[in-house]
């Protein structure tokens, strides 16, 4: 049997820390003594990922390299200040050419505590034949659709809704084609695709789901960071 090549990943980390009340990039905010981006990269590596490209703010490249110095096969490149989609495209370019059926993950440094098992489930699903895979959790809140004036226009069935997490996984050819198509769309159309799976959906691709994890919370506001600190205290930090 041929040996499976390692998955690779783009780890997006170009966001600001403004909503956390921090002046430094969000991915460099400390979590139990290590920056968010370190935790996220370590989780990817433990989940079966080889090469990781981190897209970081241009002004902090050296800080990111120092933060990730003890994790092997990590390349830090400048991300885009235009959009997440543009940053991921730069990360894909830095990964270089891959075989069409190679597995590539796209993860957010803002989800630092995603368990390795989630990455492994995503990778396994792609290797089993899925072109695009996302980890999800059931929605527990009641959801409403509203119009521009704030009036409720509908109540979707909660059973039909899921909350989407990262890392999202793809066959290399599926993701790169979706990004190429996305780059040719108008700004309004691009906004409609808020994640990489959305780009695949926009070109008619199918997206499979696997089970996510509550620990894969997204650190956006101070309360998120406080919860992540509690969870990180239970994790080995070295």
Q: Strands, helices and their partners?
A:
Blueprint lengths: L6 E6 L17 E2 L2 E2 H11 L2 E8 L4 H7 L6 E5 L5 H12 L7 E6 L7 H12 L4 E7 L6 E2 L5 E3 L7 E3 L3 E4 H12 L3 H6 L3 H7 L5 E4 L10 H11 L6
Parallel strand pairs: 1-4, 1-6, 4-5, 7-12
Antiparallel strand pairs: 2-3, 6-11, 7-10, 7-11, 8-9
Helix pairs in contact: 3-5, 5-7
In short:
The chain is α/β, with parallel strands linked by helices. Helix content is 33%, strand content 22%.
Give a written overview of the molecule.
With 238 residues, the chain is α/β, with parallel strands linked by helices. The protein has one domain: Spore Coat Polysaccharide Biosynthesis Protein SpsA, Chain A (Alpha-Beta Complex). It is built from eight helices and twelve strands. The chain has helices at residues 36-46, 61-67, 84-95, 116-127, 172-183, 187-192, 196-202, 222-232, and strands spanning 7-12, 30-31, 34-35, 49-56, 74-78, 103-108, 132-138, 145-146, 152-154, 162-164, 168-171, 208-211. The strands form three sheets. Strands 1, 4, 5, 6, 7, 10, 11 and 12 form an eight-stranded mixed beta sheet that branches. A two-stranded antiparallel ribbon has the order 2-3. Strands 8-9 form a two-stranded antiparallel sheet.
């Amino acid at each position: 049997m041929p040996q499976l090549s390692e998955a690779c990943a783009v780890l997006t980390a170009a966001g600001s820390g403004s909503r956390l009340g921090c002046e430094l990039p969000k991915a460099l905010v400390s979590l139990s003594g290590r920056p968010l981006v370190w935790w996220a990269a370590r989780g990817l590596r433990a989940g079966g990922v080889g090469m990781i490209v981190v897209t970081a703010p241009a002004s902090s490249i050296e800080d990111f390299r120092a933060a990730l110095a003890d994790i092997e096969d990590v390349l830090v490149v400048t991300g885009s200040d235009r959009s997440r989609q543009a940053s991921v495209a730069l990360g894909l370019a830095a990964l270089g050419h891959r075989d069409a059926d190679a597995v590539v993950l796209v993860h957010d440094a803002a989800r630092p505590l995603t368990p390795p098992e989630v990455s492994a489930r995503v990778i396994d699903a792609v290797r089993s034949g899925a072109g695009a895979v996302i980890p999800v959790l059931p929605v527990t809140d009641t959801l409403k659709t509203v119009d521009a004036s704030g009036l409720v226009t509908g109540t979707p069935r909660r059973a039909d809704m899921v909350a989407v997490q990262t890392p999202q996984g793809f066959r290399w050819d599926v993701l790169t084609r979706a990004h190429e198509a996305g780059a040719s769309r108008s700004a309004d159309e691009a906004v409609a695709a808020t994640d990489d799976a959305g780009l695949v959906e926009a070109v008619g691709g199918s997206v499979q789901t696997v089970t996510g994890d509550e620990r894969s919370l997204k650190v956006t506001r101070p309360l998120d960071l406080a919860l992540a600190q509690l969870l990180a205290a239970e994790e080995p930090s070295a």
